[in-house]
TrEMBL record:
Keywords: Membrane, Transmembrane, Transmembrane helix
RNA-binding keyword on record: no
Name of the protein this chain belongs to: Uncharacterized protein
Transmembrane segments: 12-32, 44-66, 72-87, 99-120, 191-209, 221-239, 245-266, 326-345, 365-384, 396-416, 428-448, 469-489, 495-517
Keyword Lipid metabolism: no
Length: 761
């Protein structure tokens, strides 16, 4: 093991330190607009989120019309902002010291992704991260307003064409591109961790503003330790950072800052009855955050705006401050919507898109699981660890998760009077109201919207997203409750906080490792994932002819590998069968949906699914030149469970039959035989039959396994069918499917393993 970490770890760490340092100094400017008594805590807790929102909006405006990486406007503009902010400081040493401390806190808050970079040299790109990585790289040399003509879209550009055509926001991508441009970093893959890590940090620190009074008796060390807890949980902030939801991570940070700021502002307006001019001035930082939210991640904006409106109504009713609060809301929403104008249509589009979104499998949690995820004690979707309300979960995990959640609820019940008091005062009112709004929306999607899947209650994906968004606002209630015990427990409270943070820190590292190991089998022999792709790029540039497109041979189920290869070969022409990747093929010219390799062209493929025999192995990839004719491309595999792999082998569990559709490429007309081989494992007595179907619908049947009980075996045969005419292979059984295990409820009769097909002389 390399005890000094990896290059991407240090690049990301320094990028995050730079981002937080810059954001803190620039953000301190905005605190001056707030009432005098709020300025000190606002500088301390909110300046990082103010600065991050400022950088995001700056990047959005500049990046819309200019390439962020090729214009002096970026370094000159940001330098001017930084110098002006520092010039306005009364105590520059204190400001610089504050920025350094915030940067150090960011190391703890970014633990969930930094620890993976340290050990494995990369983060999981097999998700939506590909979109944002491509956006940021593309924005280095292109302006977003430069619309790509449909007939000129290439695979690399498709991620940008996607967002341009659908009208989706790219605020997080602009921010990442800005940091990449300022630091002159070649690959946005190196910058992505710093953007999500910085976002988590500024959101956690912003939680301190509405509870500044409760935090004041604590030493700064313990304050920062307590505020880092959401970053060491399993809630929406950490999940979005590690699952490719970068825009959500940045959006939750800015949106969280908005509600954490507005609560104390509502309390101040209601009780102090300030002048109208003072209210208008105090609304400026809130306008900044609302505009930043809409530019970055507009989906939760309607829920947050509803919470702000309801909170204002409640405070106006309680304190008879109708005129003052009406003025505040008119200025906040009026000026914000005036700035974003056409972006309101994007909000509506994005919200409609999100509310109808589903994933490839249901989120099959109980209602307890959704609420647990909201408070950060329940894992997220897909393969995220510690999803203790899944039907197939280990009983011990369920009892452990339920016990943790019960303890949390018990603690909140004990401190309910304090939380109620802070809500009634107004400081925590917007956070509490938005939690209620999200929970009501969860119930609507659970009980009044039909499930698109055979399992799961209601529209489960939207339920998950809503509790994901609620995480920062639920956690501020937890942190407030913990901070409030300081007056009773004294230093015992400090020691308890430190112990809890250390435990959560170690748990976060363990959970991050579990989360990453679920994709590490895809790169089984490397401890530096980024270096794999850099070596692949270096090999292609050195050995592949520039006049022929590089063919990407990635059969169905491997599209994320292919996307990352496209990202790292952005300046080379590439060809492939894109028909299994809706993120790309929908935006390509129709004639480019399915492309065939050219003889003599380079082929990039997975090592266990080779089109070419000779070449360079860069695990798990193989790179070589296509010097012979004849290869079968697998178009689709249906009627079975999904593809599984351990890096060396791949297999499919089959209930009854498996249907493999083929596309024969470059076979000679005089090649008359086809060779098929595979391994299989039967479960119980059964007969397997192989059906080979040609392009003229002729079928040849071969009985493989007759009357045998459970066993593992292999088949290899040469069949008198010209490979150029073979279109489909079906293997079916007459056996009975049974559950795979007590923990795996899938029913299967047999397993197909390492299927291979090709021509034979």
């Amino acid at each position: 093991m390399n005890y000094f970490g990896t290059e991407i770890f240090w690049t990301a760490l320094l990028s995050q330190v730079f981002t937080l340092f810059l954001s803190t100094i620039i953000g301190r400017l905005w605190a001056v607009a707030l009432p005098y008594k709020m300025q000190a805590p606002a500088r301390f807790y909110l300046s990082p989120v103010f600065g991050l929102a400022t950088l995001t909006i700056f990047a959005c405006f500049v990046g819309r019309f200019l390439p962020l990486g090729n214009t002096p406007v970026v370094p000159v503009g940001i330098s001017a902002l930084f110098i002006w902010a520092l010039y306005r400081e009364q105590n520059r040493y204190s400001a610089l010291q504050h920025a350094v401390v915030v940067s150090l806190v960011g190391v703890i808050c970014g633990t969930s992704i930094l620890c993976i970079l340290y050990k494995y040299g990369g983060f999981n790109p097999h998700n939506d991260a590909y979109f944002y990585l491509t956006h940021a790289n593309w924005l280095q040399s292109n302006a977003f307003a430069k619309t790509i003509p449909p007939e000129q879209v290439i695979p690399y550009d498709s991620a940008v064409a996607n967002f341009q055509s659908l009208g989706l926001r790219m605020g997080g991508s602009f921010l990442m591109a800005l940091i990449q441009a300022l630091l002159r970093i070649q690959w946005s893959y190196d910058v992505y961790p710093s953007v999500v890590g910085s976002s988590i940090t500024v959101c956690c620190l912003a939680m301190g503003f509405p509870i500044a009074t409760a935090l004041r008796p604590m030493r700064r060390f313990y304050r920062f330790a307590l505020l880092s807890l959401p970053a060491l949980s399993l809630g929406g902030l950490v999940l979005s950072a590690n699952s490719g939801f970068m825009s959500q991570c940045v959006g939750l940070a800015v949106g969280g800052g908005l509600l954490f700021l507005v609560g104390p502002l509502l309390a101040w307006i209601s009780k102090e009855n300030p002048k109208g001019r003072t209210i208008v001035r105090a609304s400026l930082p809130a306008i900044l955050l609302l505009v930043g939210l809409i530019y970055t991640y507009p989906e939760p904006a309607p829920f947050l705006c509803l919470a702000l409106g309801l909170s204002s109504l409640i405070m106006a009713y309680r304190f008879k401050a109708w005129k003052k609060l009406f003025l505040f809301n008119i200025v906040l929403f009026g000026v914000s919507f005036l700035i974003v104008n056409s972006e309101i249509l994007r909000v509506i589009t994005a919200l409609g898109f999100e509310s109808g979104a589903v994933v490839g499998s249901p989120v099959d949690w109980t209602l307890l699981g959704y609420i647990g995820h909201m408070f950060g004690v329940h894992g997220g979707v897909w393969s995220d660890p510690f999803q203790w309300t899944l039907p197939m979960t280990i009983r011990l995990h369920f009892y452990l998760g339920a016990s943790l959640f019960a303890l949390l609820l018990l603690f909140l019940a004990v401190r309910a009077n304090y939380i109620k008091l802070e809500i009634l005062k107004g400081t925590l009112l917007p956070a509490a109201v938005v939690c209620v709004v999200f929970l009501l929306a969860v119930l609507i999607y659970r009980y009044f919207v039909a499930s698109p899947f055979p399992v799961g209650k209601g529209q489960s994906w939207s339920q998950f997203k809503l509790t994901d968004w609620a995480h920062p606002f639920a956690m501020v209630l937890v942190i407030a409750a913990i901070a409030s015990t300081r007056r009773y427990l004294g230093k015992l409270n400090d020691y308890g906080i430190l112990s809890l943070v250390i435990l959560c820190f170690l748990t976060t590292i363990h959970m991050s490792k579990l989360r990453f190991l679920q994709i590490h089998y895809m790169y089984p022999k490397t401890r530096n994932i980024e270096q794999v792709y850099l070596d692949l790029r270096k090999t292609v540039l050195a050995q592949c002819p520039a006049d022929l497109p590089v063919y990407l041979n990635f059969p169905m189920g491997n599209l994320k590998y292919r996307q990352m290869v496209v990202y790292y070969l952005y300046d080379r022409k590439v060809a492939s069968d894109w028909s299994d990747d809706p993120y790309i093929y929908q935006f390509l010219p129709r004639q480019n949906y399915v492309q065939e390799p050219a003889l003599g062209a380079c082929v990039v493929e997975l090592k266990h699914n080779r089109m070419v025999e000779q070449g360079v192995l860069i695990d798990p990839f193989h790179i070589g030149k296509l010097e012979r004719l004849g290869y079968f491309q697998i178009i689709s595999v249906t009627d079975s469970y999904g593809r599984e792999s351990d890096g060396e082998n791949e297999w499919y569990w089959v209930k009854n039959k498996i249907n493999i559709e083929l596309n024969p490429l470059l076979f000679a007309k005089d090649q008359l035989k086809t060779k098929i081989s595979f391994e299989y494992q039967t479960r119980g007595e059964q007969q397997l039959t192989l059906h080979l179907i040609t392009d003229d619908n002729k079928t040849e049947d071969i009985i493989i396994n007759q009357g045998n009980t459970s066993r593992e075996a292999s088949f290899e045969g040469v069949i008198d069918i010209p490979p150029a005419s073979l279109r489909q292979v079906i293997i079916e059984t007459d056996g009975k499917a049974t559950p795979l295990s007590a923990k795996d409820s899938r029913e299967a009769a047999w397993m197909l393993k390492n299927f291979k097909i090709g021509g034979s002389n």
